[in-house]
Design a protein that fits this description.
Strand order of the largest sheet: 1-6-5-4-3-2
CATH class of one domain: Alpha Beta
Shape: globular
Strand content: 35-45%
Number of helices: 2
Largest sheet: 6 strands, mixed
Radius of gyration: 15 Å
Number of strands: 6
Helix content: 25-40%
């Protein structure tokens, strides 16, 4: 199922031309993904959930679907696309953490793993956000 795309233009305040470190980019990506999912009707239940040494960026719910959401932000394509960076090992780690989350809350929702991909222009003034549902 193709992901839904939206092109957004960022306000230039706070996104100057200075180099942005990886952690800051990750936090920015998670905030963008959270806002995007809320616009789509999801409730955000947890952020940076950790279980058994694994982490889920966002846990979101809409209806009976409980989604473990991996967020990938890329500035330019110098290191490949954001989608390419999520391999089977990463998906397996997310699945373990999602099982832990479900067990700890006795949740009967239908679990799935989603990916929110944010491709940002090198100058950080434009981006495309895609939500890929059920990547495995």
């Amino acid at each position: 199922m193709p992901g839904r795309r939206r092109r957004l233009r960022l306000d230039q305040r706070g996104c100057g031309d200075a180099a942005v470190d990886t952690r800051s980019l990750g936090e920015l990506g998670e905030k963008i993904a959270e806002a995007f999912l809320r616009m789509k009707g999801y409730a955000i239940l947890a952020k940076n959930y950790r279980y058994a040494g694994r982490e889920i960026d966002l846990i979101a719910r809409r209806g009976n679907v409980l989604a473990a959401v991996e967020v990938k932000l890329r500035r330019g394509d110098r290191f490949g696309s954001a989608v390419e960076s999520v391999d089977s090992r990463k998906v397996a780690r997310i699945a373990v953490a999602l099982e832990g989350y479900i067990r700890s809350r006795d949740d009967a929702a239908s679990p799935r793993i989603d990916l929110v991909v944010i491709d940002m222009s090198p100058d950080m003034h434009e981006m495309t956000v895609r939500h890929l549902e059920g990547i495995c």
